[in-house]
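Ticket opened by: R.M.
Priority: normal
Category: complex prediction / small molecule

The reporter submitted a protein together with protoporphyrin IX containing FE and asked that the result be attached to this ticket for the collaborator who will pick it up next week. Submitted input follows.
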Amino acid sequence: MSQILGHLKSITQPSHDRLETVSFAHEIMSQKITRPQYLQLLAKTEILYQAIEPVVNQFIKESKIDKISPFISNRLADVKKDLKLLNGKQPAYILQDSPVRIHALPALIGTLYVLEGARLGGKVIVRALQKNTELADIKDFHFYEQAGIDTRQRWLNFRNLAEEMITDSAAVEVAARAAQKTFDFFYKIHRKPLSFIEE
Ligand code: HEM
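Result attached by the on-call engineer:
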């Protein structure tokens, strides 16, 4: 089904905009994010990727569909490295159970749409973080840098995969619902300040 990503974009655009308002987009892009804000951003990102990535990766592995395997995601390891560079404290909570469920291929595509799309902003974000004076001592931004990943090419490959896998309107519906739920989950985690265990 052609234009599946165009459809997902049009229905989730308001969610992207809403998410930006709670995830320091303005502070990042104006190179004025503070250290505590950057810590919030990373710690919440860790919570999110801890809940999403294993579910996505397990579905991909169990599906045994070769074409999907390039979309296994390993960004959790990167965000952990970044938190170490900040001497990150332990968040006061972790999610015991992942709220993310993927039962079918169209739901995987909808979820991946959000994860793969989130990579696109990364290369822009990293340039802003590198110029942010309050973070001047931080030499690596692993999560946003995505070393070795050509995000543009990966996105084009994902678009081709999505068009091949989503073949009818019922599948479009399922993918759209999964994308929306994924954005909602990001918003839910980002909208509240995260507290940390004090040592
Ligand atoms: C500081 C926060 C963010 C900024 C500044 C940002 C910025 C951007 C930009 C500039 C693009 C267009 C990239 C391009 O076409 O080359 C984009 C696309 C996208 N972003 Fe973000 N983003 C942010 C956070 C996120 C997050 C946290 C998510 C997901 C949870 C996300 C999901 C997406 C998706 C799905 C697309 C693809 C839209 C499409 O073309 O279909 N973004 N973002």
